[in-house]
Every structure is written in C-alpha cells, then in structure tokens.
C-alpha cells in the first residue's frame, strides 16, 4: 500500500536523485511483496496452478520493466530484452544454483537433490535459451542477430509450448521427481499435519488476502518501474558501465526474492527446492517473457535484437556444460557451487568490461 502512495505522489514528475533512491527502495519492496504473496496463493491453490501463479507474477514484473524502458527511453533499447533474459539465465544457472549448492553442501556435507527432475529442468532451460538467444545470431533471413516476424512467432510459440509441457511434467505427470529428497532428520522436513506428503497450505482467507495484495503490488511495480526507468539508465551511464548492464540490473531486481528463498531452502537441506526455483525462474524468464515481448513488439518501434554475441555465447556454453556435470550425479560438493559462482562473476565482470 505504501508503494501505491509513493506511485501516486511521483507519477508524472521528474524527481531528483534522493527521491529516486527512495522510490527505488519502495520498488524493491513492491517486487518482494508481489512474489511473497504469489507464493502464498500458489501454495493454497496447489499444482499445477500454483506454479503458474508465481511464474506469471514474476514475468509480469520482468516484462513491465523491459517494456517500460523500451517505450520511455530515448536511448537504443534494441538489445534490452536479450540482455535482460540472458542475465536472468546466467544469474539463475550460476548465481542461484551456485549459492544453493555452496550453502547446502557446507551445512550438510553434501547437497543432495533429484537428478531426474533437475535434469529435465535443465534440458528445458537449455533448449529455450538455444531457440531464442543463440539461433538468431546464425539465421540468415534477417540482417544481423535478429529474427524475422515469422521466426519470432515460431520462437514465441515454441517457448510457450515448452514451458507448458514442463509445467505439466513437474506438477502432474512426474511430480515426485521435483519434490525434496527426504532427509529423515527432525526439523528439516516440511510441516505435514495431514500426512499427505506435502507441506500444509495456508487458509482460504489468507490466500484471498494475498491475492488482493498481489494485484496491488503488481500495479505498484509497473507504475514505479515507469517512474524509475530514466534513473536506472542514468545510474548505469553515470558509473561508466555499458548500456547492456541495464539488463543485469533488471534481472537482479526481479530474481532477488527467488535467490533469498533458494538459499533458505538449501540451508534447510532442501536443495531440490532451490534448483526448482532457479531453473523454474530461468524457464519463466524465457518461456513467458519472449512470447510477451514478441506480442509487444507489434506496437514497439525499432529492431528487436535477440541473438547473443560471441562472448555471451561462450559463457552460456560453459554454463550449460558445468550445469550438466553438476546435475547428473544428484549430489554436489561445495566445489561445484564455487565453479558456478566463478562463472557468474566472469559474466558480471565482462558485462562491465566487455
């Protein structure tokens, strides 16, 4: 509610640096609140609808930030969607996964998870990334690393189909592959008073309240993003970073709640939940954002560059190889997490100093 008050007070104005900093704090708070309430609603309605609630909430935030910057910016935003989606992939594959593995392995000797479920998640992420971020660099129908209208339509439909198939697999067909590996240690497993094998959901009243607050939070995020969009670009330019770093900022903002939740789950020896959050966020970022951006591009002027450059392609390839080697055994040492974090550090550094 406070974010809505701030939005009403700042709408249509050009605030100074101090006020922009305060607005940014409320924007981050609105993002955290939106994802928290989405998680509450998701837990109440159950699967498969629960996963869709959280994914749609996060995607609305991401698309709102991307489209707002593309519409309001007077700078070149042709690569903004690509940079943001790629940043989300690198942060999830290496940052969230790396932190979860390090925390889980250090606290419990080994980080244990279900290789079947995590392998399916990773395969979907890799396919989505390849179709939408790698192929545009090599297609020849359009000049440069861009899709033609028909190619973009195919990529959007394929992304949505892949994401839909994965959600069905995760929540209906093979749900057990994505549940935490039981530890048998008191205090670590979810509270399950009815003995159905799953943590007990919140009450209907709590879920309805969270649903209403979720709508409020999303309105605040979209509005505050529009107010803050010039400040985000100016801040990146002021510190001398390339324009593409704006995408990293957006991805970090959107994925902050998932990162915190993943680390907490790993600390409780629920690394499978951490990997579900990481790979699920990557899939949502591609599988839902690309179709939304494809639709928005009908009304947006200018080119839409999706193809990765050479450095980004190499980093993605290294991340995929390391991720496969991490997931296949079904358990991990701290070293595996450290390797992922080094890859993330390399990505951030090369984003600043390409």
UniProtKB/TrEMBL annotation:
Subcellular location(s): the record lists:
Membrane
Which Pfam family, an example, fits this chain?
A: Na_Ca_ex
**UniProt keywords, alphabetically:** Membrane, Transmembrane, Transmembrane helix
Q: Does the keyword Acyltransferase apply?
A: no
Transmembrane spans: 18-37, 49-72, 84-106, 118-138, 150-168, 207-225, 237-256, 277-300, 312-328, 335-352
InterPro entries noted in UniProt: Alkaline_pH_Ca-Antiporter, NaCa_Exmemb
What region holds the Sodium/calcium exchanger membrane region domain?
A: 20-171, 210-352
Q: How does it sit in the membrane?
A: Multi-pass membrane protein
Name the chain's protein: Ionic transporter y4hA
């Amino acid at each position: 509610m406070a974010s809505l008050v701030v939005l009403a007070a700042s709408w249509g104005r050009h605030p100074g640096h101090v006020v922009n900093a305060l607005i940014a704090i409320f924007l981050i708070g609105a993002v955290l609140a939106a994802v928290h309430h989405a998680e509450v609603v998701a837990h109440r309605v159950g699967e498969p609808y629960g996963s869709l609630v959280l994914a749609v909430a996060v995607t609305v935030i991401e698309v709102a930030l991307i489209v707002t910057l593309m519409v309001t910016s007077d700078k070149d935003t042709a690569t903004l969607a690509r940079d943001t989606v790629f940043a989300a992939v690198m942060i999830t594959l290496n940052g969230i996964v790396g932190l979860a593995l390090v925390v889980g392995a250090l606290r419990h000797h080994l980080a244990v998870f279900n290789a079947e479920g995590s392998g399916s998640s990773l395969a979907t992420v890799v396919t989505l990334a390849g179709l939408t971020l790698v192929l545009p660099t090599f297609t020849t129908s359009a000049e440069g690393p861009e899709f033609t209208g028909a190619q973009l339509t195919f990529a959007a439909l394929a992304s949505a189909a892949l994401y839909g198939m994965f959600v069905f697999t995760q929540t209906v067909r093979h749900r057990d592959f994505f549940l935490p590996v039981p530890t048998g240690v008191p205090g670590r497993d979810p509270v399950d008073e009815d003995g159905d094998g799953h943590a007990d959901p919140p009450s209907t009243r709590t879920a309805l309240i969270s649903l209403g607050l979720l709508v409020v939070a999303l309105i605040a995020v979209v509005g505050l993003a529009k107010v803050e969009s010039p400040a985000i670009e100016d801040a990146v330019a002021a510190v001398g970073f390339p324009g593409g770093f704006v995408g990293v900022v957006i991805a970090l903002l959107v994925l902050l709640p998932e990162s915190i939740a993943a680390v907490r789950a790993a600390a409780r020896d629920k690394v499978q939940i951490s990997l579900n959050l990481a790979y699920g966020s990557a899939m949502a970022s591609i599988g839902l954002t690309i179709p939304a951006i494809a639709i928005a591009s009908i009304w947006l002027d200018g080119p839409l560059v999706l193809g990765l450059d050479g450095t980004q392609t190499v980093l993605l390839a290294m991340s995929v190889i390391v991720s496969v080697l991490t997931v296949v055994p079904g358990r991990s040492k701290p070293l595996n997490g450290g390797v992922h974090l080094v890859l993330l550090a390399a990505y951030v550094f090369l984003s600043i100093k390409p």
